[in-house]
């Protein structure tokens, strides 16, 4: 594996040392417009270029690491994408939300792997907190409250709200990562410190308070968090996790059971396994969107809807009358041949719906008596009449009737009329 590292400034020099010390199987080359960097890099035996295109042409890297200032991200990535190079980039994606969307859309359209180096979620104590949440240790999450206090105002920023893309974007990622939910609305104020209220999916309310000129006790970079649930509370305080449940508090400060490879290791592994990386640019765009909408909320002094950033995709419409019939067949050992159209399959849904189909039973035919184990099946009678049998009980059904078959129930349907019986049928897996 050969990697081209673009930019060896502050963050870039850290990545340079990290890759050389932690990724011995990666052959490295460097590109930076600052000629003064050459002697140090070449002194380490690493090829150095001031021209990005020359570096790509000469080195033919497998991946590109973009660790330039955010204003340069788009130009660098456009060149890399032109060579179909997978890109691993420092956050934020771009200098503004519009450019970020354009880059993510281009990478997706051209099938180019593109990942952002989000590292806060990779801290062992954060992974432990996530594990406890996923295990249901506090039940359903109700509220998430985070705070960040540091004295970092010496960091160069063109605008005070640059803190959103440079710093708070990490904490937006933590809110989404820990809850597994998206933010639907955001309201923010910023005077002496930043206050953000987030209305999330599943009726979760999240808040975040941030000061970059605090003179009191400093939090670590991930911040401190309190997550209240229906059955308990989880807290992350100074990188230690506390679980309070049933009046007792358990402290977690040993994270040796947590496996969390670094962001670049995850990127390389995702390429090897031909899958989307954990903090792909497609997913990370939702974090930068929150930074963008927080800016808008502060500018407008009102709550802003963020849901369009979730990436809904195009509307999906399928017509059961226009869909093609499959080959007619005997259904569950029933009478005669029935006709069906598969409208949606399991792969079409994000929930446990297994399928949705249209069935047509000519007079005298039937869907044989059968059961489905761990799922529920619903029959919606559109036209015609028939006899529905559920657990041995028979009932005449007609257009407009909806029949529910619960897990392990047995059921069958016979057309006893003189015209076709038409129905929509869908199946849903039982909740685990």
From TrEMBL:
Q: What Enzyme Commission number does this protein have?
A: 1.-.-.-
Domain Cupin type-2 intervals: 358-424
Report the leader peptide range: none
Protein keywords:
Oxidoreductase
Describe the location of the Gfo/Idh/MocA-like oxidoreductase N-terminal domain by residue ranges.
Answer: 2-115
Q: Does the keyword Oxidoreductase apply?
A: yes
- Listed GO molecular functions? oxidoreductase activity
Which InterPro entries is this protein grouped with?
Cupin_2, Gfo/Idh/MocA-like_OxRdtase_N, Gfo/Idh/MocA_Oxidoreductases, GFO_IDH_MocA-like_dom, NAD(P)-bd_dom_sf, RmlC-like_jellyroll, RmlC_Cupin_sf
User: What is an example of a Pfam family matching this protein?
Assistant: GFO_IDH_MocA_C3
This protein's name: Oxidoreductase YteT
Source species of the chain: Paenibacillus konkukensis
What lineage does the source organism belong to?
Bacteria, Bacillati, Bacillota, Bacilli, Bacillales
């Amino acid at each position: 594996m050969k990697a081209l590292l673009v930019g060896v400034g502050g963050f870039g020099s850290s990545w340079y040392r990290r890759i050389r010390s932690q990724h011995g199987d990666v052959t490295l080359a460097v590109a930076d417009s600052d000629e003064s960097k050459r002697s140090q890099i070449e002194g380490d035996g690493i090829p150095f270029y001031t021209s990005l295109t020359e570096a790509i042409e000469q080195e033919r890297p497998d991946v590109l690491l973009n660790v330039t200032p955010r204003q340069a991200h788009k130009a660098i990535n456009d060149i890399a994408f032109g060579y179909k190079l997978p890109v691993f980039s420092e956050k934020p994606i771009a200098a503004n939300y519009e450019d970020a969307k354009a880059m993510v859309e281009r990478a997706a359209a051209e099938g180019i792997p593109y990942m952002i180096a989000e590292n806060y979620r990779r801290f062992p104590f954060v992974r432990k907190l996530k594990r406890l949440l996923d295990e249901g240790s506090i039940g359903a999450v109700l509220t998430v409250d985070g705070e960040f206090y540091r004295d970092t105002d010496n960091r160069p920023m063109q605008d005070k709200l640059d803190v959103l893309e440079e710093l708070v974007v990490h904490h937006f990622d933590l809110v989404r990562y820990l809850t597994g939910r998206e933010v639907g609305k955001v309201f923010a104020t910023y005077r002496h410190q930043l206050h953000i209220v987030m209305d999330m999916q599943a009726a979760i309310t999240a808040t975040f308070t941030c000061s970059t000129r605090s003179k009191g006790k400093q939090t670590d970079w991930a911040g401190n968090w309190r997550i209240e649930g229906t059955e308990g509370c989880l807290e992350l305080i100074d990188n230690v996790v506390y679980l309070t449940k049933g009046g007792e508090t358990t402290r977690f400060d040993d994270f040796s059971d947590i496996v969390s490879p670094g962001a670049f290791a995850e990127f390389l592994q995702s390429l090897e396994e031909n899958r989307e990386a954990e903090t792909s640019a497609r997913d990370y765009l939702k974090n930068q969107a929150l930074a963008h909408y927080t800016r808008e909320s502060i500018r407008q002094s009102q709550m802003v809807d963020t849901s369009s950033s979730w990436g809904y995709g195009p509307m999906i419409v399928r017509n059961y009358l226009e869909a093609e019939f499959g080959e007619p067949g005997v259904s569950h050992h029933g009478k005669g041949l029935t006709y069906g159209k598969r409208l949606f399959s399991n792969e079409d849904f994000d929930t446990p719906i297994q399928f949705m189909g249209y069935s047509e039973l000519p007079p005298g035919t039937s869907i044989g008596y059968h059961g489905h184990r761990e799922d529920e099946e619903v029959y919606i009678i559109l036209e015609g009449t028939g006899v529905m049998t559920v657990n041995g009980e028979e009932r005449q059904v007609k257009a407009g009737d909806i029949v529910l078959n619960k897990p392990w129930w047995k059921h069958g349907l016979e057309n006893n009329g003189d015209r076709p019986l038409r129905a929509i049928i869908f199946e849903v897996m039982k909740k685990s």
